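This protein record is not my work; I was only asked to verify it. Take the sequence as given and treat only the tokens as open to question. I have pasted the whole thing underneath without changing anything:
***
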Amino acid sequence: MMSILGPLFIAATFALNALRVEPFATYFYLFAWCGLIFSFDQLIRAREGRSLVVHCGVGGFLLLLLWSAAFWYFFELVNFRLQNWYYVFVEDDEALRSFFSMLSFATVFPGIFWIEHYLTLRGVAAGLRWKGWDFSARDLYGMQGLGVLFFALPLLWPSYFFPLVWGAVVLLVAPLNYRRGIDGVLSQLRRGECGPLLRILLAGLIAGLLWESLNYWARAKWIYTVPFFEELKLFEMPLLGFVGFPPFALECAVLYRLLVYERLAPAFGAYQGQNRVVRSWGLRALVVVLAAAAIGGIDRYEYLTMASVTPAVARVESLDEVTKAVLHREGVQYLTDLEGWYGRDAWKALEGELTVAQYESLRRLSALYLHEGIGVESGNALVRAGVHSIEALAQQTDADLMPRLEAVANGQRLPPAARVRVWIRRAQSGRAPSAL
């Protein structure tokens, strides 16, 4: 029975999201991804007799979640400079937004490591070997120097060197693990074992495909604006971007091995080696507290990559007061309330209460504001710049539209040109918001 609960929960989440039922519409990605983690956990339980969550224990699993969130927030910090992705239609309430963001980021490690563990149980790449590779002290320092370069170049010239971020942690931390005798990727390569490396790379690719597929159908989601690769996409990810998921998974693995070694995270599966010298409880607690503080500190600046929040009707400048009053009377607080199952009933009621001109104007404006997560702030700016519909947006170019947006900004943040190109390209492709 337990083995089918995960798939049933995922199926229910898809159905409720399709109907735009809250909270499943806004938090679809988180619900579905947690369902997948639970499903893999039950597959592991079926083969081993015990789930990994139970193996870690409550305290250990919470630590794993904390380190997962801390690690991804590090990349959020880097993205303040790179601007390779942004978030749309996030929770309007700041406290709720922070909570659900932290919870979403906390699922990165379980997702990758549970998939990797299941691949191990299935014997994927078991016994594969190649010629061993010795690493000298010079080699190790050379890797770490290269790791510093892999961080520095994207921060200095993000438009050209942004891919190097997805590999820098491996170059910095893997030699550190090797010197400590941790049985990580370099130790395995020295022995000629390639199976563990191939499994974690494959787990990263599988996790990436699942992440992007679930994100694509979500209301609150991330969208990529990667230089030179904005045209060909699978879901919201540029095709070549999927190459980054395997090395990212390896980054997670090398860091987690170090955390396990220092007894800062629970040991399980391939992550077992621990330092014989046990650090004081107070020192380890301090490290955990500092990690939690870093999460909170970085989260305070997440607005730098938030393109839009749930679009409140009251903030839509271009709607007349009569239309707003009717929407309020019908219980439509956000433009997203006009989507899905509930939205169809709302549109029927509105058709009888608004004039034809008001109704058609609301149709055009809601479609524009919901298009690619444009939202209220940018939607208002587009209307002030003379763009009143998706059809009008499709006729624009970013070179022509950006100066007009700047002229009507009224002190508000301007959307980057890369984001505007996404709006225009999707409008030109005929991709419209769902459920309108």
